Amino acid sequence: MISTSTIPYRQIRARYDDETITVYQAYSAAIAIPAVREQKLNASPAFKPDRMTWIKPSFAWMMYRSGYSFKDPNQAHILAIRMTHGNFRNLLCLASVTGSHGKVMTAEEKAKPVRVQWDPERSVRMEELPYRSIQIGVSGEMGRKWVEEWIVEIEDVTGMARELKKAVDRGQLDGVSSEALVLKGLMPEEGPYEVDEELRRILGMTVNADH
Question: Which of 122, 129, 154, 156 is the most exposed place for a label (fewest CB within 10 A)?
């Protein structure tokens, strides 16, 4: 198990392979079931294309945000959404960072179609960790492009989320490493996702604390 003291304050951690990275979202059954069946996030008329949509590379943070899919009916299905590395980086290049050092966003930053927030990462038990997890908000034409063109695959991983919740409730995770959770099928395998220095600058990844 990796010591939390060795993890950078702001770091992207994700499930990825040679071609794609996986991000997570939570939706109602009315949106999620048609999305998985047709492999189109906007397959249901219940999907609202004009709203900013937030994607999360961290499965643990998605568990926190959705209450392991039990928080409310609008987050009852956890979707794992794959996109190419190139398109993921294209999104990040267009980002402005919110809530950074109390800084007021400029008009130029507000006009960007992508928002990035760095929120406290969570453990599988929803405990707050001493480093940050990236959340990426996409809106406008870029949001529509992401939904309509940039999604490679959509998978419903609600079952994994709920099995993880059962294990947490039963106290079965004490002393269990992240590697063991992956082997048990309770977590996806995630690792540091490296980006170049220009993207690190855009995303504010060089800071050591939020002020």
Answer: 129
